[in-house]
């Protein structure tokens, strides 16, 4: 973390007009403004952390004063004195000592320094569409091999700010009503005071987005709008390479989405598709239209686990277009591309960057309940950009907007192979429980496993509601499958996986290849996994706090996804029947 970034608020004037701004180095601003006819400057504050000076600046200036306005009957001395009185009033609200205010007059701007304008153009280009702290900008500069020191970068950013080529905000902003807001994630909750030796004043940081690095009231956040925009007419031809033949329903949806990105009226569209209906592929033609017009496209997902599969499909579909993937463990989070596949958390680092955002699994945790992630996605869209929401289980705000006809919707009720969705069978088994001696797997569950492996010659995906159960169900089933009626299997029959499992990706790939027959998992793999021949068993399906309607539909949707085994089987097993179990089965039946 770079130390506290302090800025000085000033008033500069020329023969007919004056301007108010703030800078880490007012002399640099004086040089810049001197070339535009400003001949005098008065410093109104001593150096203050950006959170404080930004609050004073926004409270004590008008929009016209920030870009330059004509004098209105007052001398420069009277104008400066008026601003100092306003500053004194507003600084008291934040507990800023009065000795931070000053009236220090400067005359005759210095000559323009030997400034590398070429570096400014490079930096502006590399920052386009990003919202980053100075520490992150320095990382980006090093990644791109640009030779520039920290002070030089700050000077370049200041000139960009004066030229209105970038937005600058404090990490945490003080609001007029006394509240605080994180300017990176948009949250007002979990903003806590922290000890900051270099501030000299009370400093705050945001706990909500701390996983991306600290957002503090003493750190400036720079946003440079995306430089590209989709033109009205194509300037190149991008055609997606389709590995599968689209069904009639998919073709119709693809055509509607293509028209959606071409017409200016609508900004958002919902695609409601059955699990396995190929909803990602129906967006490819819309993405191609945007790319052909010079725009950038984002495929965003709430969770990391399905991201590699989407990334691979995008690279195959658009071999002539640069595609990059960004998630929490990606080494280069500043790669340039025309198509980005990213988790919604990483979207917090983008600003007015994309002409088209395709948000998959809009109903999934953590996006569906996170105003922070919803804020991030909308801020990443360019002013005239579009958003396509994809889901098999619309819920919450998205569902309500569709129900009220505020959001238009395309439905794809059938899978690409034309077979219906496997409808779950609900199995009530009172013996399914944990005991003092361990876990007891009832005979009916053992029979379902045997039916799958040796009757259907299929693999089995077993979902459980906790990490504890994933481990213990796996251990118990490995013991059971060594006994009759199971035939001998060389190696382990059963593996387990969960979000904290370091080998989760490896186990998923091995399972898809058929290297072992049974995978016990949490909701980690309710999405983002397609197995050629698989049945699904949801164990403890009555754990309603984990297995809600949407989760059960998604888990059931893992079965029957391929034309080689379209009639996979699904069982919900619990000691009772919950509302979610019944409604999930009814929704699947309605789609069929």
Strand content: 15-25%
The largest beta-sheet arranges its strands as 16-17-15-18-19-14-20
Q: Radius of gyration over alpha carbons?
A: 29 Å
**Would you tell me the structural class of the helices and strands?**
alpha/beta
Unreliable parts: none
- As a percent range, the share of helical residues equals 25-40%
Overview of the molecule:
There is one protein chain. This protein has 592 residues and is α/β, with parallel strands linked by helices. It has 17 helices and 28 strands. The chain has a seven-stranded parallel beta sheet. Strands 1, 2, 3, 4, 5 and 6 form a six-stranded antiparallel beta sheet that branches. β11 (191-194) and β12 form a beta hairpin. α2 (50-60) packs across α4 (76-93) and α16 (549-556) packs across α17. It is elongated. The relative contact order is 0.08.
Please render the helix and strand layout as text.
Layout: E1 6-14, E2 17-23, H1 26-34, E3 38-45, E4 48-49, H2 50-60, H3 63-67, E5 69-70, H4 76-93, E6 101-107, H5 117-127, E7 130-133, H6 134-143, H7 150-162, E8 167-170, E9 172-174, E10 180-182, E11 191-194, E12 203-206, E13 220-224, H8 248-262, E14 268-273, H9 284-292, E15 297-301, H10 307-317, E16 323-326, E17 339-343, E18 354-359, H11 371-380, E19 381-391, H12 396-403, E20 409-412, E21 425-428, E22 433-435, E23 438-440, H13 443-455, E24 459-463, H14 467-480, E25 494-497, H15 504-512, E26 518-521, E27 534-539, H16 549-556, E28 570-574, H17 579-591
Parallel strand pairs: 14-19, 14-20, 15-17, 15-18, 16-17, 18-19, 21-28, 24-26, 24-27, 25-26, 27-28
Antiparallel strand pairs: 1-2, 1-3, 1-4, 2-5, 3-6, 7-13, 8-13, 9-10, 11-12, 22-23
């Amino acid at each position: 973390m770079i130390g506290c970034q302090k800025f000085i608020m000033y008033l500069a004037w020329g023969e007919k007009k004056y301007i108010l701004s703030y800078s880490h180095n007012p002399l640099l601003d004086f040089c810049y403004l001197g070339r535009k006819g400003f001949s005098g400057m008065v410093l109104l504050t001593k150096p203050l952390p950006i959170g404080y000076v930004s609050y004073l600046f926004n409270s004590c200036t008008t929009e016209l004063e920030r870009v330059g306005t004509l004098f209105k009957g007052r001398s420069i001395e009277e104008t400066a004195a008026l601003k100092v009185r306003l500053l004194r009033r507003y600084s008291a609200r934040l507990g800023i000592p009065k000795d931070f205010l000053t009236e220090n007059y400067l005359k005759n701007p210095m000559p323009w320094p030997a400034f590398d304008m070429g570096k400014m153009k490079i930096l502006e280009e590399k920052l386009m569409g990003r919202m980053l702290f100075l520490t992150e900008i320095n990382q980006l500069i090093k990644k791109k091999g640009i030779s520039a020191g920290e002070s030089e970068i700050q000077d370049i950013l200041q000139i960009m700010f004066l030229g209105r080529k970038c937005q600058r905000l404090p990490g945490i902003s003080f609001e007029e009503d006394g509240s605080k807001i994180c300017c990176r994630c948009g949250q007002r909750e979990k903003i806590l005071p922290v000890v900051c030796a270099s501030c000299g004043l009370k400093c705050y940081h945001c706990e909500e987005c701390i996983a991306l690095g600290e957002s503090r009231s003493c750190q400036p956040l720079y946003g440079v709008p995306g430089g590209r925009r989709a033109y009205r007419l194509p300037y190149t031809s991008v055609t997606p390479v389709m590995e599968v033949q689209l069904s009639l329903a998919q073709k119709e949806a693809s055509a509607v989405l293509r028209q959606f990105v071409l017409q200016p009226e609508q900004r958002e569209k919902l695609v409601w598709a059955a699990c396995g209906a190929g909803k990602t592929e129906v967006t490819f033609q819309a993405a191609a239209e945007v790319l052909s017009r010079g725009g950038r496209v984002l495929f965003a997902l709430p969770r990391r686990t399905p991201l590699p599969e989407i990334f691979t499909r995008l690279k195959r579909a658009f071999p002539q277009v640069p595609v990059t993937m960004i998630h929490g463990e990606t080494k280069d989070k500043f790669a340039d591309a025309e198509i980005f596949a990213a988790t919604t958390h990483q979207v917090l680092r983008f600003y007015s960057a994309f002409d088209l955002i395709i948000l998959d699994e809009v109903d999934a945790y953590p996006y569906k309940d996170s105003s922070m992630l919803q804020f991030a996605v909308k801020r990443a869209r360019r002013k005239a950009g579009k958003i396509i929401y994809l889901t098999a289980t619309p819920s919450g705000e998205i569902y309500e907007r569709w129900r009220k006809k505020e959001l238009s919707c395309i439905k794809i009720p059938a899978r690409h192979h034309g077979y219906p969705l496997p409808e779950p069978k609900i199995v009530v088994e009172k013996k399914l429980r944990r005991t003092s001696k361990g876990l007891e797997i009832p005979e009916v569950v053992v029979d379902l496993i045997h039916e799958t492996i040796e009757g259907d010659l299929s693999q089995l995906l077993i979902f459980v509601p906790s990490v504890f159960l994933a481990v213990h169900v796996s251990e118990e089933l490995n013991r059971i499958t060594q006994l009759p009626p199971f035939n001998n299997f060389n190696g382990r029959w059963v593996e387990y996986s969960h979000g904290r499992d370091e080998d989760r990706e490896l186990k998923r790939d091995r399972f898809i290849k058929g290297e072992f027959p049974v995978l016990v998992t949490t909701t980690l793999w309710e999405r983002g996994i397609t197995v050629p021949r698989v049945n699904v068993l949801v164990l403890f399906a009555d754990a309603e706090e984990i297995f809600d309607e949407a989760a059960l539909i998604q888990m059931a949707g893992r079965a029957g996804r391929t034309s080689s085994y379209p009639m996979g089987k699904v069982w919900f097993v619990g000691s009772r029947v919950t509302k979610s179990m019944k409604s999930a089965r009814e929704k699947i039946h309605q789609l069929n």
